[in-house]
Amino acid sequence: AETYNIENTVKRYKEAGVKGDKLVLGTPFYGRGWSGCESGGHGEYQKCGPAKEGTWENGVFDFSDLEKNYVNQNGYKRYWNDQAKVPFLYNSENGTFITSDGEH
């Protein structure tokens, strides 16, 4: 099976003749969220409703907004998916699930 990750992507570009100093890695500093998520697994891998009202638009949360207003406050608790190595937030009071690639 083909592995999709940064290491293999860079390797393939270099094998295709792209110089390493021309490659730039972009990292998303935002999260995605949904409302009405069932409580099993703290909302992870559960049936959810529509996108939650976010920072910029429905379902999209700015990283700084997550840090300032959501992480372990206002009913949101931070959890960790050790297999995917990503954090996520869940609010059991309103069923909101938010995931992101970030430190939170």
Automatic annotation (TrEMBL):
Question: Domain of life here?
Answer: Bacteria
Give a single Pfam family match.
Answer: Glyco_hydro_18
Q: What is the organism field in this record? A: Bacillus licheniformis
What Gene Ontology terms for biological process does this UniProt record contain? carbohydrate metabolic process
Q: Which residues form a coiled coil?
A: none
Q: Where is the GH18 domain?
A: 1-104
Q: SUPFAM superfamilies this protein is in?
A: (Trans)glycosidases, Chitinase insertion domain
Q: What is this protein called?
A: Chitinase
